Amino acid sequence: MDTQKVDMFIMGNGKYLPEEKLHYIRERLESLDENKWNYISTMQFKNPTVSLIISIFLGCYGIDRFYLGHIGLGIGKLITCGGFGIWAIIDWFMIMDATKEANFEKFCMLL
């Protein structure tokens, strides 16, 4: 893969992925063939800031977890009203990292 394309991908999508895994992502992209590049370059990642806003306003209903695709956790938060408020507050601090990890898992599935 062309180094310039990899750099552009990292610059454009680095804020949606965990920082500690960017080196691994760079290595994987550089070893990728051109056929898969079309899939990777058109990927849409979830925005961590949007997930934080959703978590602040609708976290007690589990909407933030549904947004990330964590259906089981979303149902759990919905049934318990955000773990009686405690789980919802904890997610305010953890949801951005969870969003980046979900984006990384989505990226790895396409490789």
Mind explaining what this structure looks like?
The longest helix has 25 residues, at 86-110. The chain is elongated. The mean pLDDT is 92. The two termini are 13 Å apart. 20% of the residues are buried. The chain is built from 8 helices and no strands. With 111 residues, it is an all-alpha fold.
Q: Could you tell me the mean pLDDT?
A: 92
Query: What overall geometry do the principal axes of the alpha carbons give?
Result: elongated
Radius of gyration: 16 Å
Instruction: Report the sheet with the most strands, covering strand number, pairing sense and barrel closure.
Output: none
Count of strand segments? 0
H/E order of the elements? Answer: HHHHHHHH
Helix % is over 70%
**Can you tell me the residue ranges where pLDDT is under 50 for at least 5 consecutive residues?**
none
Protein structure class:
mainly alpha
Strand content: under 5%
> What is the tally of helical segments?
8
Query: Distance between the terminal alpha carbons, to the nearest Å?
Result: 13 Å
Short summary:
With 111 residues, this protein is mainly alpha-helical. It is built from eight helices and no strands. It has helices at residues 3-13, 22-30, 34-41, 48-58, 63-68, 71-79, 81-84, 86-110.
